[in-house]
Amino acid sequence: MGTEKKKRMAIVASKGTLDMAYPPLILASTAAAMDAEVAIFFTLYGVDMVNKHKNGRLQVSPIANPAMPSPIPFPNIIGVLPGMTPMATSMMKGMIKKINWPSIPELLQTCIEADVKMIACAPTLEMTDLKKEDLVEGVTVGGAAEFLDFAFDADITLFI
User: Fold this and answer.
1) Looking at the domain 8-62+104-159, which fold is it?
2) Strand, coil or helix: 36
């Protein structure tokens, strides 16, 4: 009998906020732990997740975030006040700590150790003047074609 093909998950990570960094990294590390092949394509603001100068300082924006818990019924109005982004970020970090989740840099390391293929979008790097040296070790640089080559054979494709 032939060997069974591994399941594949392809993820596009396009957001660079703290609350949007967890879903692709948790899903990728979990799928890899379940013996799936996984690739994440970090594009646009998603590159902040793998930027070693930013990934430990990602923030949560309370503006236009209707799910953001708030004691006041108009979080979007309140969100424009000075200091609300650090407050929202602090609140999120507190919730993360309470359930003992790893930090974004720790989750990235988990993904690297689990052989998750992590690709930073070359045009995004060019557009933002980032270099390969600015990225977390283990992240490769590539374009849409490299990611799509993997994604064409994926069982699950997610855009986050």
Assistant:
1) Hypothetical Protein Ychn; Chain: A, (3.40.1260)
2) coil
